[in-house]
Amino acid sequence: MTKLPTPKPWISAIHAYVPGKSKGKDGRPLTKLSANENPLGTSAAALAARDAAAAPALYPDPDSNELRGALGQLHGIPAARIVMGTGSDEILHIAAQAYAGPGDEIIYVRYGFSVYDIAARRCGATPIVAPDADYGTDVDALLALVNERTRVVFVANPNNPTGSFLPKGEIARLHAALPSDVLLVLDQAYGEYVDPANDDGALALAESAGNVLVTRTFSKIYGLAGERLGWGTGADHIIDALNRIRGPFNLSNTAQAMGLAAVADQAFVVTSREHNAATRARFVERLEALGNHGVRPLPSQANFVLILFEGALDAETVYNGLMDIGYITRWLPNQGLPHGLRITIGSQTQMDEIADEIIRLARGA
Ligand SMILES: *Cc1c(COP(=O)(O)O)cnc(C)c1O
């Protein structure tokens, strides 16, 4: 028998990440509301910057200096305290890898972002899942699981796929009760979609605390998912650790150029946030007006809504029904939510069409 290379057992235990689909079963292209991309596309200024990027034959700036400078200026953070990643995905993985390994524990909430499980297992740590509070993050449940093996706690705020949001007081309470040697990763992939009046205080905590890492991305509100740009900020010693293990040229020339132009175009960010808030409010209002049909949109601060189907109409039927009228959404049986459908907020017309169809199916069920 030829011996073959054998992956580490913790690698074999990983269920690969399942991305949002863009096609129906018959291969027909559908309007994609399954991956929380920006329906307004990308800032025109960022698109224009694509052509001005440095030549592809040249390596990019390994430290993304200009982009970190611009982000620092926008958010009032020293550039030295910002680390860039190939998507915030890279930051999440290297945060787990830098601080945890075999024998250590990484905690996150049930119905949390599915990458946390992969990030924990990839470095050999044990993922520990805290119970939710009606699909939201339960600070006490997270804290109850902390012990001497805990190295990292991941919290997405707002959370994906639930859209739930912990207010500033809850984030502060979680941080205050954690041991100072446990890294608290606050994943703000949807942070820019939250009304600035409801700031959860994560960036301020990352500035003042020695054990907080905040991650952000250009994939959602900035409309640059395809260019793979993310970033993190925290204490100097955390940024130093992450810089040691990130990819040395992890942001391409194009990504750096487009990111820089996108940061400069905050008008696009504001327009996107306002479009999302208004469209989401109207969509949720219409579903709520349906009355007692077991169709429950969960409160969302993000650019998607998780709808629970708790009555005669089931999520799979709606998922297929929406495909029939041209939309691909995210049905979540593999994340313990066979009764849940996550729908990205698209254009007003798209969301009206989707609400019409859900209402029609619910009344007929
Ligand atoms: C989309 C998303 C990310 C961002 O991933 P990128 O690698 O930056 O594209 C991170 N966290 C959560 C919770 C997300 O939903």
Question: Explain this structure to me?
Answer:
By secondary structure, this protein is of the alpha/beta class. The chain has two domains: 18-41 and 267-363, Alpha-Beta Complex (Aspartate Aminotransferase, domain 1), CATH 3.90.1150.10; 44-264, Aspartate Aminotransferase, domain 2 (3-Layer(aba) Sandwich). The chain is built from 13 helices and 13 strands. The strands form three sheets. The protein has a seven-stranded mixed beta sheet, with helices on both faces. Strand 9 and strand 10 form a beta hairpin. The longest helix has 24 residues, at 266-289. Bound molecules: pyridoxal-5'-phosphate. Pyridoxal-5'-phosphate (PLP) is lined by residues 36, 87-89, 113, 156, 160, 187, 189, 217, 219-220, 225, 230.
CATH topology of the largest domain: the name is Aspartate Aminotransferase, domain 2
Identify the bound ligands.
pyridoxal-5'-phosphate
Number of strands: 13
Q: Tell me the CATH superfamily of the largest domain.
A: Type I PLP-dependent aspartate aminotransferase-like (Major domain)
Largest sheet: 7 strands, mixed
Report the order of strands and helices.
HEHHEHEHEHEHEHEEHHHEEHEEEH
Assembly of the depicted chains: single chain
Radius of gyration: 21 Å
> What gross morphology would you assign?
globular
GO biological process, one term: L-histidine biosynthetic process
Catalytic activity: L-histidinol phosphate + 2-oxoglutarate = 3-(imidazol-4-yl)-2-oxopropyl phosphate + L-glutamate
Protein name: Histidinol-phosphate aminotransferase
Modified residues (N6-(pyridoxal phosphate)lysine): 220
